[in-house]
Amino acid sequence: MMNEKKGRRPKIVVIGGGTGLPVILQGLKAKHAEVTAIVTVADDGGSSGSLRNYANVVPPGDIRNVLLSLSNIPHLQKDIFQYRFDTNDHFLAGHSIGNLIIAAMAEMRGSIFEAIQLLSKMMGVDGHVYPAAEEALILHAIFEDGTQVSGESKIAKESKKIERVFVTPINEDHEVKASRKVLSAIRDADLVVLGPGSLFTSILPNLMIGDLGKAVTETSAEVVYICNIMTQLGETENFSDADHVSVLHKHLEKKFIDTVLVNTEHVPEDYMNRERYDEYLVQVAHDFKGLSEEVPRVISNGFLKLRDEGVFHNGDKVVEELFKLAYESNRVRFAKI
Predict the structure, then answer these.
(1) What predicted TM-score, i.e. pTM, was given to this entire model?
(2) Which domain of life does the protein's organism represent (predicted)?
(3) pLDDT in tens, 153-186
(4) Rounded to whole angstroms, how far apart are CA atoms 274 and 10?
(5) Sign of the C-alpha dihedral, residues 156, 315, 247, 289?
């Protein structure tokens, strides 16, 4: 393959947030891709939300997990960075050390972007980590009944069908812009990957940043969507895989996704711990006819990994497919030059 012969690492941009993103990033790092992670900044729950409100900082939780997934520091240091104070610590209860460090460095540097770049050097990060925007954003949802709610953590609690989402800055007097280097990373990529992650609260908040979404729809890179394995309470109840893609296309008013990765392996009915993973409902239904109307290519495989009584993507299998697509995309792009 052209890239392999030249020895150039494939340039892969991954956009999202939540627990699924680090799994894919770890796999890409292990295979020596040139990785750029673009991380959502609309989280307002838990430790991230508390720090966001108290210290006026971009929510650090997803950023913390992404930095660790690409870091080369020893496991002990990673464990310290991830340590979360328990409920007996009163003021510090629920906060992770990593979140506090990110918030402190953002205050020191006067910029979340600069804080992340400095931390990336300190932590030996193999790749690039950028916040989707350099300010905290508010995620809004408009439901099919015409009602509206603001705040990422509140959306699923409404238990209504979402019509669309959008983002605004905390101070609604200016247009939201993508963070530095985000647009050039998308433009120069071989592959742009969306997900895995919550459709309305982890993926779309990034794409609803005007210039970022426009860059994704216009890039010459292959755009890949990793479809969720399970439907999600208050977000994607009764959704098929085609429904997920349709929502993305409707929000950006363009059929911009080139390839969808779909898991076809069955999730055992009694495997998942419903109390521990209470936001997940049932396995996403397949609608291959609907998918064929939305995207040029569907890659279906057993991308399932069962662990800790939960359902996850098999990072190794997903990354293997992503590498194939990245090399193919590179050949096509350079053939046009």
Answers:
(1) 0.91
(2) Bacteria
(3) 899 889 899 999 999 998 777 899 999 999 999 9
(4) 39
(5) negative
